[in-house]
Amino acid sequence: MGIEVMWDQENIIRWECVETWDIGDFYMAVSHTCQMMDTSKNHIDLIISFVGQRMPVNLISHLGKLQPRFPQDTLIVVIESNRLVSSIVNITRRVFGESVLEGAPTLQAARARILAHQDELRDRTRPIKA
Length: 130
Known about the structure:
Blueprint: E1 3-7, E2 12-17, H1 23-36, E3 45-50, H2 59-65, E4 75-80, E5 83-89, E6 93-95, H3 107-116, H4 118-122, E7 126-127
Parallel strand pairs: 2-3, 3-4
Antiparallel strand pairs: 1-2, 4-5, 5-6, 6-7
């Protein structure tokens, strides 16, 4: 499979996409992720990282379709070659803020920074069309 799912104790999931992968890989990764989730936590953080390749243009719409599978307070961050492409808050809004993750050393710091910039970024959001 072209998507490797990694899990840590902070309820943060990191997907590393390092090879060519198709939508079947994507749905398998989502299914695996949902099985591993601790639903007693009020949020799951999902970092989708594309190393040395571009984010598929249809990724955001696929995440929108999968919205009911995730807890409501999920935060998704999409990173392309270490640059923030978008973050999705509650998987219903697409937020563009390329500079938000600059200098954030950890995923926890990245999440804190995104949440701190939420109001500013919300001005540039638009709902996902699932």
